[in-house]
Amino acid sequence: MTTIAPDATMAGVARTYPRRAAVVSWIFFDWAAQPYFTLITTFVFAPYFATAIAPSPATGQSLWGFAMAAAGLAIALLSPVLGAIADASGRRKPWIAGFGMVLVLASCTLWIGKPGDHAIIPLVLTAVALASVGAEFATLFNNAMMPTLVPPERIGRLSGTGWATGYIGGIVSLIIVLGLLAANPETGRTLLGVTPLFGLDPLTRQGDRAAGPLTGLWFIIFVTPMFLFTPDYPAKRPLRVALRAGLSELKQSIENLPRRKSLAAFLLANMIYTDGLVSLFAFGGIYAAGTFGWHTIQIGTFGIMLAIAGALGAWIGGKLDDRLGPKRVIAGSLLVLLLSVAAILLVDKDSVLFVKTALPQAGAPLFSSAAERAYLVLGCLIGAAGGPLQAASRTLLIHLAPKDRIAQYFGLFALTGKVTSFIGPLLIGMVTALTASQKAGMAVLVVFFVAGLGLLMRVRE
Question: Which of 6, 256, 276, 387 has the CA that lies 20 to 30 A from 438?
Fold first, then answer.
């Protein structure tokens, strides 16, 4: 298929896009990377850390927040610089390979996190932070490949399909962990009612800890097609020359940013609402564990339902993105998130929206109480809105940013998504620590979505 790309039009050059196999292989990067976010930061390892490794759930939530804040700050400071250097040097794959290796090694290290071993907490949190850095930077350079894969009018569908595929990958990896690896310590059985594979010990929570090595192996297997079949940008300059040129171009872009008012407003909005969304996903499982006493199987089942909702939302959002524009998709997603978070704060173990409900009986099936079911519904709404929000955000950036500096602006995109990303986890950690209340800590997220939606209204596509 040959068409005229926006950056090629001005030079009068016809742009040829790669074959379908190259596009599908690129999409599978999201499938490869998603288990880190699904298994480690949200539904398996984070709740396991808070409830089994840390002294208490509130302390675990606080410590986890501080580790995520440190990782977010490192990502924020380095993303624009690395993106600018990548634009100047041309190639993306070496960066993806390098940071992918950081993700793999750090994820595998999480196996050492034994229950009740407080001495291992600093090393576990360091590994989590490094894995986050690897995952985010690899994703940055993978995103920067998008404009060369499909014509501009199909970018929204490509982005949405990628996010949906990632969610499905998260679902599959979560089913593997819950159904075959992680068992209830009391029964010794997994969610599918079988004993854990490979002789994993339920009492030492080896199934939960196996989420780390599985994440690393999963990434290696499923990122390989992208390296084999998806064409990279051609090399432009040697790394040393690209370093100087990239930093010079980055300085110029930052100086020109105030003149690009819509782009500046979008980056600022993205900074705020992404902070809220990442914090919501990072602490959703921990909050459920503390509020309802859920263990890995309950949280993981909840995660599967969220991921299904997210995949469907991202896929539909990608189609709406090409039809209505990414700004409208982002605004609608933010409204759903805002209302859902506000409602979750009114759900407690024995009440829903100030109405008292019965507590679950001992031995009752999963999610048998009205409060738990309400939390499930609200969680699925959050999942359905989170997918299109993230997919449409990277689409809108591609529409607004200069095409010859796309990795650099994805670096600024990552900067705005991370430069204050320590604030959300930090505020949640601080408020939780000061009040000893998980609900009070989560309440700060409402402000992030309101402010992000207000700034988005100033963006013109």
Answer: 387
Count of beta carbons in the 10 Å neighbourhood of residue 235? 12
Residue 354 corresponds to which tokens in the numbers above?
């100030």
Helix 261-292 crosses helix 370-400 at what angle (to 10 degrees)? 160
Left, alpha or beta for 107 (phi > 0: left; psi -120 to 50: alpha)? alpha
* Nearest of 170, 171, 145 to residue 158 by alpha carbon: 145
Longest CA span, the chain: 71
Q: Report the Cα–Cα distance between both ends of the chain, in Å, rounded.
A: 27
d(CA 364, CA 123): 38
> By the 8 A CB rule, do 76 and 415 touch?
yes
Q: What is the pLDDT of residues 103-141, one digit of tens each?
A: 999 999 999 988 888 889 999 999 999 999 999 899 888
Contact by Cβ (8 Å): 450, 281 = no
**DSSP codes of every residue in 171-210:** HHHHHHIIIII---TTT---TTSSPPGGG--TTTTHHHHT
pLDDT tens digits, one per residue of 159-188: 888 888 988 898 899 889 988 888 877 788
Model confidence pLDDT, tens digit, residues 52-88:
888 888 788 788 888 888 888 888 778 777 777 777 7
How far apart are alpha carbons 38 and 295 in whole angstroms?
15
| E strands, 285-349, in order | 347-348
How many CB atoms are located within 10 Å of the residue 187 CB?
11
Highest mean pLDDT among 176-190, 200-214, 278-292: 200-214
Q: What is the C-alpha radius of gyration for the chain, rounded to an integer number of angstroms?
A: 22
pLDDT at 406 (0 to 100): 72
Q: Are 121 and 53 in contact (CB under 8 A)?
A: yes
